[in-house]
Specification:
This protein is an alpha+beta fold. The chain has 2 domains: 4-56; 70-134, no CATH class. The chain is 30% helix and 21% strand. It is built from 6 helices and 9 strands; from the N terminus they run αβααββαβαβββαββ. The protein has helices spanning 4-7, 15-24, 30-42, 70-75, 85-91, 127-131; strands at 12-14, 46-50, 53-56, 82-83, 101-105, 113-115, 118-123, 143-144, 147-148. The protein has a 4-stranded mixed beta sheet. A hairpin with a 2-residue loop joins strand 6 (113-115) and strand 7 (118-123). The radius of gyration is 16 Å and the shape is globular. The two termini are 26 Å apart.
Length: 150
């Protein structure tokens, strides 16, 4: 099974997204996913970001110098990740400076991640929003360069 169709649509992807893609095509076995990830990683077509999260390298690109989109990485750090604070301002082009630290809000705990020249830092969902059951209050989805950010 060729994965190029999936990779052409996902600059950053999770194994859950890959599993859904494979299941729709009739191949939902974990060994199939593992074999495909190993093959495409060895081919230099994908690079691991952390367990369960990968970045796609464009066809003919060099994995060592292929920059992953940091905003897409932050948006995929967990299923409920939301770009936050200065990172959200940067994403929308409203910040006066660009940082290499990206913040995202998530209810799921996560350790600091360093990938390429970026640091990805999780912030907890504000307590007041959690208390009111409005963890996603004001959150909108956006596309970035044709890729879905969440």
């Amino acid at each position: 099974m060729k994965l190029n169709e999936f990779l052409s649509r996902h600059a950053v992807f999770t194994v859950d997204e890959l599993d859904r893609f494979l299941f729709v095509r009739g191949s939902g076995k974990p060994n199939t996913r593992k074999s495909l990830l190993t093959y495409y990683r060895n081919q230099g077509r994908i690079i691991p970001i952390r367990r369960g999260l990968y970045a796609t390298v464009s066809l003919g690109g060099d994995p060592a110098s292929s920059p992953g989109d940091p905003y897409l990485v932050a948006a995929k750090m967990s299923v409920d990740a939301v770009l936050a604070y200065h990172t959200a301002l940067e994403f929308h082009g409203k910040a006066h400076s660009v940082y290499t630290r990206l913040h995202y809000v998530s209810a799921r705990k996560s350790l600091l991640l360093k990938f390429q020249s970026y640091e990805f830092i999780r912030a907890p969902v504000p307590q007041l929003l959690r208390e009111k059951g409005k963890e996603m209050f004001g959150v909108t989805s956006h596309k970035r360069s044709g890729w879905n950010s969440g």
